[in-house]
Amino acid sequence: MSRFALSLLTVLLLANAVVAQKIETVKIRLNHVQPSDFVHTLKTANITRSTGGGDSDVQEPLLPFGIKNVVAYNADNSLLVTGTAEAITQFRDIVRLYDVKPRIVLLKMRLMEARFAADGKRSEKTLQTPILTTVNNGTGKVSVTGRGGYEIEVTPHINGDNSITLSMNWNLRILQNGNRQITRTVQRTRRTRAGQTLRLAVPFVPDSGGLSNEQPPQGSAIDDFKPKEPGSLYYLEILPSEITLEQSATP
Known about the structure:
Largest sheet: 6 strands, antiparallel
Distance between the termini: 68 Å
Low-confidence stretches: none
Radius of gyration: 27 Å
Number of strands: 15
């Protein structure tokens, strides 16, 4: 008998066994995940199973075999699950893995301008102090629209050692001489610890209005930066920390 025929026979035998089992319906309450989102994940996600023996890995649905139906009730944060007793037990195991308290990252930021005069003298001022809260692996965005505004997008990822990797996209619009707008953009991915400040700068903006060929300094090098002509260096400080869900809801 061919390998395909054996696989087909196995599926048919399993299907007949499930039919013979008693079908039941239970209500399962969720604590952290929204039911409709959880059902969407069940229907779209797959898990990878290694077949061994050098064969390719197999993609299998996350929803256990033997589950007939899952209905989400967001009103009372529950799921109505219909299936065999064995499948429902497997379903509860999946719920325990996915229904976990979300990890929240607070990002305190400062948008700074360092001004350099013709004699090289440096002065600094704080332009904005945005605060952003987002879930782990979720993208948060803060923006000021119009001329002279900015957009900052940050996606935090809390690593296994509790360090935080930040993927950042910063778009800054600068007005020169009151009417000329130029745009500076920087994209960076950096790893840090909660409570440690990350600093990143966009390319230097000379008062002459031209484009600077100088590479923007990053981190502690921002403090030692000395441009070749008068102008402004705009940089962003980001202080990440992990907070609780209750803290994120506090104004």
